[in-house]
Amino acid sequence: MILTRQILRSRALAPLVLLLLALGLGLHPGPIRADTARSFTLHLPSGDRLQLSPNDLAALPLTEFVTSTVWTEGVDRYTGVLLRDLLHHHGIEAGRGTGRVLLTAIDGYSAVIEFAAITERAPMLAFLRNGAIMPLRRQGPFWLIFPYDDDAAFRTETIYALSVWQVETVSVIQP
What we know:
Blueprint lengths: L1 H8 L4 H10 L16 E4 L5 E4 L1 H5 L4 E6 L6 E8 H7 L10 E6 L4 E5 L9 E6 L2 E2 L9 E3 L11 H6 L4 E7 L2
Parallel strand pairs: 1-10
Antiparallel strand pairs: 1-2, 3-4, 4-7, 5-6, 5-10, 7-8, 7-9
Helix pairs in contact: 1-2
């Protein structure tokens, strides 16, 4: 704010600074447009790369978790596709073998989940919270989530570290 006051004292720059302040430009980044991040890339072992949207996921069998999280307030209803079902739809049996899945978020955070940890119960790649598309600024549009309230086994630091939100890529790695 001190810098802004000093710039405003300069009569030549004052109209430009006031215009920028009025438009909200130059002082802080504007909101990220959620519509530019409405898909993620699925990297398959074959080398194929697929862009998947919420509509693509909605065509698969859907699952719901009603749970609280350590990152949100209260209990919410999350809807999405079990990671196991997403992989199965693309010809990958996660319950077998020594493969793993690398999930990478928009901010570069990543986590690896072993095939053995992908079950018919969890995790789920959620894209709806309480029936609405999750905005980018609220863990969306895709969040790998577990039914945290259902079992203490889902309330561990290991599971929390796997709970990647703002998922940008899902890469299947098989030896």
